[in-house]
Please model this.
Amino acid sequence: MHSSARCSTGNAGLDTVLHGGLPASHIYLLEGQPGSGKTTLALQFLQEGVRLGERCLYITLSETAQELADVATSHHWDLQGIDLFELSSVEDLLGDERSQSVLHSWEVELGETIALIKQQIERIGPRRVVFDSLSELRLLAQDPLRYRRQVLALKQFFSPRNITVLLIDDLTGNHADRDTHLHSLCHGVISLERFTLEFGAARRRLQVRKLRGATFIAGYHDLSIRKGGLEVYPRLIAAEHHITFSDNLVPSGIAQLDALIGGGVLRGTSTLLTGPAGTGKTTLALQYVAAACARGERCYLYEFDERIGTLLSRAENMGMPLTRYIEEGLLDVMQVDPAEMSPGEFAWSVFKAVQDKGCKIVVIDSLNGYLTAMPQEKHLLLQMHELLAFLNQSGVTTFLINPMLGLVSSIDVGQLNVSYIADTVVLFRYFEAEGRIRKALSVIKNRGGRHEETIREVRIDRQGLRVGEPLTNFRGVLTGTPEFVGNLRPLMEGRDA
Model:
């Protein structure tokens, strides 16, 4: 759809959602409960106007100038260049005989207040205006019909003046007292939400409800308030991102492992590493990461479970110089706190790693940690499917680590079964032989091509990860109750190293 020139909101994520910004010279409604981030977003909108050399005006009926200055200071901003019209001292403008304060706004005539606002706009001539908030205007009107007429009059007043206006509504009061007609009067509506989970930080999200004559990314978008402003994480749509890449094989650097997977993992596919804890899933993923970094490819590791220091120390002991690759800028390791990071923020972080830094391999360790970040589990597979589709279409090789519940007895796949959306599935198991706990791995499926149907022993020590011969003398390894039917020659012992 064709639209007028776009007006940047000053927020890169929101501009992405709006496909460039708000169509200029219109009135928009910014609504949300207290604490959802409306004032922060409004100040970002005006800060962008100041940066572009536009005259900006903040009309406040609810917050004082000091309160706004405190918000700006918390983000290392200043209000220079923004004209502030504070109606908390409206008695000075109405005269001594009308000594009212915004703290008792229902005693002030609505018409006189609107007239003062119009005078300020005529005097300053702004290009951007924030009106905070409509709740106080609703109190002044006391009558829904009168309030509606005044809002419509404001719209007609702004319309010919080439001003982009944000009307803030904090949604206070009963649902019956709120006038839904605002959605029809305004050119666009942006809703902010804040909700608290049973554990962890409060979550915030944004939704563009309407935007006349312009396209936008529909649905909910996670956001957070950080020092420096409000960050919006646009919902990832895989269909909008596709590049041409060669679907060559990605080697691990271990000939036996590559042979097991048919020569290597195919680029642009996802590999699920599943099995009990301690069987070597993370080590196998790190082997691919180390090999890719040695080739000069950029890799990202998102660690939900293990501490980064422990991970790097373990890798160094096995001959993987991950610390050196981090220093060279080839590897980024991010410790993810599921109680603090929302799923949308995580997906956006992966998106930026691919788009901005050219990442070729992504490791997510583990899916159980990712599940913890979800406030609603029913959406987890949808978000994971969209993320994997984006990575696959971008030519990124992805490793997903999914620990099973249980160790050596009956094993459950855990809280999340994503095996059907993975292109390759590698299964790890424990088995017992000669009074020792041993490990085995096998490839269950490989959409990228052929793969061995054998079950091989795997050993992890200071020499790294080693893959042995097929366990032809055992049966029942995958069931967890192996039965010895031959000699012990294929087993990997320390003396064979």
In short: The chain has a mean pLDDT of 86.
